[in-house]
Amino acid sequence: MSVEPWFIVAMVLSLSGYGIYLAGLRRHLVEPSRASWLIWAVATGIEAATYLAVNPGRPQGLVFVVSALSCIVVTLAMWRRSRWSRPSTTETVCMAASLAAIILWLPLQETFWAHMLVVGAVPLGFWPTWASVWEDRARERSPAWGLWTLGDLATLFVAVRSHGFGVGEYAYILVELLCHASVWLMVGLSTISPLRAFGVRKEGLRILDAYVPANPFAVRETHLGKAVFAARGFARGETLLRFSGPTVPATRVPGRLSGAADRFLRIARDRYMGPSGRIDDLINHSCAPNAGLRFTDDGVFLVALATIESGEEVAWDYSTTLADGDGTMTCACGAAACRGRIGPFAELPADTQRRYRALGVVAPYLDDQPEPVVQERAA
Q: Which of 5, 210, 263, 300 could staple 243 via S-S, CB 3.0–4.6 A?
């Protein structure tokens, strides 16, 4: 029995897309929506199973099975960068739809309607990604979206050539095709080029792609591990990026965290901001920082405290968010004025505390601490 050429094309494109996306994830060249991938990991598994039940023997069903497994692999790769947070309304609706599909499929044996229910939940899974790309299309810079779109098109050809019929045959293929194509259009059709997605080196600095203004940072290795470097210049006072991540009560912050494992930012006496899984998790400490955190009603923003040149590492002083009782750590930032340890804000020299307060880069919950008293030397 001969193998349908379009089936091979669909498999190659789909697997290539997942492989390239996973490579970009490991190199921090994409900033995926954790919500979308968690939804897809569940929904694609259910969809693959119900599709095969509705359309037994169809070769395109194998494409969906492989895609579901690959989706789970990518989601697991993101797991270490994720923290639990309360599901959004969209996530809740999508998870409820997946649960309802399982109930229809297994106990009630309504496979067709279970299949259609999951098909309807697919766009909900894409909603967090659409919102993320709308805010910054560079977050999903990857040839994967183009490869997945073309893979869906090849899968559609397989369905047509195998004489498929009915809404149960084509609904999922068409919905996936439209959703993948929409993201590909949003990030730019030129991202199909691997060179643009993986970047090129120029004078030792990795240029990510044409969207440098939207994603003006590069991640490189230093003696401390991964670090964030400016891919363009920033003026003093300019906002660099917004810190994000789930709000975590102090009672739920794991103990004994240190080094790369400690991605928690204290934002109040009883609350922390957990890891975001994005580039803000990788910004290191410096005792002579060129950036600082500014807390506003709209969020926590990293701002430049001095002119930052292209190729310069971006760093802020962790002590500006630490209170008495917070753990201390050894500092190896390498600055000429390195203090040797990172400790509470109250332990900083008095003039350093005043300078940080004047710059507006001290966590607000620390502002109720008294100004340091400087003892006058006797004449």
A: 300
